Amino acid sequence: MVWGLTYCGASCGCMVSALGVLTLLGAGRAEDPCRNGAFEELFEALQSHYVECRQAGLNATCLPTRVSHPLVGLASNIVEVEAEAAQAGGNSLVDSPCLSGLVAALAVYAQPLGHTVRGQWAARMAFTLAGRGCWPTVGFKSGDWPVSYHEILEVALNAEAWHEHGAAAEYERPPRHVMPPPFIHVLTATTDQSSHFGSKNLSPNADVTSNSMQPRRVHILSTGHHASYPAAVFSMWRALLKEYDFELEDHSFDTRYCELAGSCSVDERFAWLGDHLRSTVVETCGGLYLKGFENIDAMAEELFALIGGAKGLASQADVLLCTHPPYSCRLFWPFVLRLDKPLLGFFGGTLEAHVPREGMKTWLHDFRDMAQHPRIQFAAISPFLAEKMRYQSHTDIPAARGFGFHLLAQGATYLPTRMNQVLLWKNSHECMDNQMDFDKLLVSLANGAAQEPDGVFLQFRHLRDLRVSGEASYSSILSFRAVVFTPYEILLMTFYELYHVAIPLFVPRIELGAFFAYRGPVTYPHCDMVLQREIVEGHDGSRTSAPYSPFVRDRATDRLAWLEAYSDWYRFPHLQRFSSLVELLTGLIRLDVQAVSAAMRQETEGALVEAAAFWRSAFVKVLDGPETRD
Predict the structure, then answer these.
(1) Which tens digits make up the pLDDT trace of 261-310?
(2) Among the listed ranges 39-53, 132-146, 397-411, 588-602, which one has the minimum average pLDDT value?
(3) Can you give the pTM of this predicted structure?
C-alpha cells in the first residue's frame, strides 16, 4: 500500500516495493491466506492488469474506473465476504487473514463507486486499514499487491469529495476549504483588556525591562502529572528572560517523569492529588473508562485550604504554573479568583484528558473563562493542540514551542561520532507491529547501497534496543548520524528537543504521514465535546473557525487539512522528508550533516527571539496588571 504503511499479518510476510506497492515474500505461499481462493484470483488478475497499465505509461493510477471491469467484480466478492464474516463473528475487518489483500480489494471496489454510499464506506475502510502497520515497509521485492498507498489516499479523498460536493466532484476534486492561520506567540485577549493594560500604559506585546539593574525575583509554584513539562518551560524562561531571577518549586505528582526531573513531591499537600488520579477511574464523554479527576471542584477547594492561607505556599509564590493535564489548571482557579495570583499554563496534552463525562461541559466553560482572565496566560506547545483547544472552547490559545533547554543545561549537544549509524525512534502501541519486515527491508536496501561505487554502509538501531542496553541517554542519542521518526502522534516533546539540538531528523512526507499520525492521545477520541458557538457569550469572531474537525480520525481530508496547517512535523523547515524507504536511504546517504544541522540551529535562534518576546509579554500581562480583587 502507499509508501509503505501496511501490514498483513506475520503469515503474509508483507513488504512494499520501491514503487510503494505491497509485496508478498516467496516462502510458504501454499499456506499463505493471501494466496488462496478469492485472494489469489484477485492477486493474479491485479498483477496482470498493472503490468499492462505500467507498460502503457499510465502511472497516475491503475485502479479500474468502470464498475463493469472484471477486477471490480472480484474485489466486490472479497469485500462482501470479509464484511459478512467480520459481522457474523463480532470482529472487525482488521481481523482479516489477509489484510493486505482486503485493503487492495477495498481500493479496487471503491475507485469506480466513490459516488455511492457503499463505495464511500469502502474507501474509508481502505484508508483506515492501510494505516494499521507500525512502520513504513517500502522496498524492493517481487510478487507484490500492486495497489499503492498513494492510490488508496486518492480513492479516499475522491470519495470524501463526492460525499461533500456531490456531482461537482465527478470530473475534478474541488480544493479543500482554507484553514485559519495558526495563532503563534500572540497573547490571548482578556475579558477587559483595556483596563488591564491601560493603568500602566502597557500593550499585551510590550517589551518591559526592570527599572533596577537587578533581575526581578519570580518564585514559581507548580504542580501537575508530568514533571518534564515544568522542567522544560522553566529552563526556557531562565535562559530567555534574563530580566527575571526565576525560582521553581515544583510539586509534580507523577511517579515516572518526576524522577528524571528530580522533582517528585513528598509534600502531602500535593501527593494526594497523584494518589487520587492513579486510583480513580472515570468515564469520558466518549464512553471510555480512564484514570481521571472525579470531583475537581472539591479538590481545588481542598488544595486551597491546604496551601492558600496567609502563610501557605501560595502566598510565597509570585506565579502559579500548570502544565499536564490542562484539567489540573482548574486546581489553581480559586487562587486566581480569591488571591489574585497570576497563572501561566503550558500544555502538551488535550483539554479532555482525565475529565469525567459529567464534568466536561463545565470544564470547557471554566477553561474559556480562565483563558480570558487578565491574570492568566495559557499556551500550547503545538499549533495543532492550540487550534484544537480553540475549536473546543472558542477562545484563542497561542502556540509557543518548546526548545529543550533542560537538555542544553545538561550539556547535551549534537556530536555525530556514530556517522554510520541511524536511530529509529519508537512507535505507537496502537498499531500492528511489522518491525521485522521493516528491518529486513531496510538492511537489504542498506547492504545494496553499500555495494555501489562510493557507497556508504549505514546501520540502524531502534530506540527500544538502546533502552534495553542502557544506551538511551541524550548524549548517546545525539551521537547518531540522524534520527528517523514515523510520527504516531501529532506532537512529541522529544521532537522539539531533538530539533533544537540540531540533529538531522527524517519524517515521512505528509501524504504518508497522514496514515500514521492519528494514533496518540492528542487525537484519541476520549471526548469530542465542543461548546456551541451560539451560546458562548462574548465570542470573538475575528478569527474564522476551522472548516474541518480535529476529532475526525477516519477522513483523509480532515487529517491532511489539520496536519498541513498546524502540525510542526510539516511546518518546521530543514526536516528531511521521505515517501519511501528508497528515498529515506538516499537522503541519509546524501545528507550533508553539517549544513542541515547548521540550518536547524539558525532557525532555532530566530525562533528563540520570538519565543522570548512572547513569554516576556506573558509575564508582563499576568504580573503587572491592576489589582482585580474587590
Answers:
(1) 555 667 889 989 999 999 999 999 999 999 999 999 999 999 999 999 98
(2) 132-146
(3) 0.87
Cis before 325? omega within 30? yes
Cell numbers standing for residue 259: 524522577
**Which grid coordinates are listed for 32?**
499463505
Distances in whole angstroms, Cα of residue 424 to Cα of each of 438, 484, 485, 487 = 11, 5, 7, 11
Q: Are 60 and 106 in contact (CB under 8 A)?
A: no
Q: Which helix (H) or strand (E) holds 377?
A: strand 376-380
State the span(s) of the chain assigned CATH 3.40.50.
193-407, 412-609
122 pLDDT tier (thresholds 50, 70, 90): very high
CA distance 504 to 593: 7
Cell (9 digits) for 540: 470573538
Mean pLDDT rounded to a whole number for the chain: 85
CATH numeric code, 412-609: 3.40.50
Give how far the C-alpha of residue 600 lies from the chain's centroid of Cα atoms, to the nearest Å: 21
pLDDT tens by residue, 312-333: 999 999 999 999 999 999 999 9
Q: Which residues pair with 421 in a beta bridge?
A: 459
Buried b (16+ CB within 10 A) or exposed e, 304-336: bebbbeeebbbeebbbbbbbbbbbbbbbbbbbb
C-alpha 159/C-alpha 123 separation (Å) is 7
Separation CA 382–CA 398 (nearest Å): 9
- If one looks up domain 193-407 in CATH, what number appears? 3.40.50
Least Cα distance to 16 among 591, 578, 569, 504 occurs for 578
**Which run of H or of E encompasses 460?**
strand 459-462
In the predicted model, is pLDDT for residue 626 greater than 90?
no
